[in-house]
Amino acid sequence: MQLEKSLADNSVDAYMTDIEKLTTYLQASGNLKRPEEIVLNDLQQFVHWVAGLGLTPASQARLISGIRQFYKYCTIENITKADPTTLLDAPKLKRALPDVLSFEEIESLINHIDLSKDEGGRNKAILETMYSCGLRVSEVVNLQLSNLYLDVGYIRVIGKGDKERLVPIGSSAVKYIRIYRKEIRPHVVPKKGNEDIVFLNRRGGSLSRVMIFYIIKDLAKKAGITKNISPHTFRHSFATHLVEGGADLRAVQEMLGHESITTTEIYTHLDREYLRKTLEKFHPAFR
User: Is 267 a catalytic residue?
Assistant: First the structure.
């Protein structure tokens, strides 16, 4: 996983946890087997056992995915001759659509930043960048100075699996990044190894994903926004606003850094009023 797919440590740890759960089940049931001895029925009983622990369907599906990856490896390495996960069914998932912020709500949230404080200027640059570029929270906290091409309106983003992409950045985000770099960041001494990180905490370290979460939650409260939002809401809003504006789904996929177009399709949920206007404009029966 680390060498061939360049997965992050957190992803590798999650896969290891899946295997540990399977091992725990086999031990608890007195049916401990080697990988090549496990059959489909064993895994079906394991999934039933996991469901009994109260894991959500989404968690069960993710766990099954981890077991499948393990057996894919076992097959490639000739540890097993057959793959018992081939006919293993995962629970059907409902596509949960997260809340999306309107452009006015995003502006209201950003306008509640206290710019009299240094971290306020930094936070404004962060949120402007997240909404302008549709970044994952991990991408914004790891954004590097050497990957900013503000003169030509692009940033280089390192996404999942260390995959790189060039993303256009809007003039407002460029403006506030420049203000932050010129007036705020020079007063912070970067910790060793963080010299190239764009957004620093007051101690010179990189910001954590949790910190971004708290910043957004606090601003939402001040702005009177009651929706359940997180850093990902900015990414979701970015994509939704693009699609509602008529953007090509392939272009949105490219900007979000999705490997598959099916992942991007969750961002195409459109409000009913928008759908009605589209039908009235383009469908002959509605004219």
Answer: yes
